[in-house]
Amino acid sequence: xxGIQFSVLLRTAPKRGQTTGRGCLPASLKSPLQDHLKKAKAxxxxxxxxxxxxxxxxxxxxxxxxxxxxxxxP
Length: 74
Prior knowledge:
The protein is α+β, with helices and mostly antiparallel strands. The chain has a three-stranded antiparallel sheet with strand order 1-2-3, with no helix packed on it. Strand 1 and strand 2 form a beta hairpin. Helices cover about 40% and strands about 20% of the residues. It has one domain (about 5-70). It is built from two helices and five strands, in the order E-E-E-H-E-H-E.
C-alpha cells in the first residue's frame, strides 16, 4: 500500500498491476489511524537522522542502480 486518502471512503493506492482498493473507514478509526501514522512518520524521521536511511543491496541490484543514494555498499 503506497497511500491512504482520508475521506468518507478509505482508498488505497495500488502497486503496479493491481486495482485501487476501496472501503468504508469507520469514523471511530480515523483519528487513531492518523495518530498511528504520525508516530510512524516520526520514528522514520528519527531513524533517518540516526543514519539508518540506507539498505544493503545484493550485487546485481547494486550494479543495476550504481547511483542509488539510499544504497549502502558492503
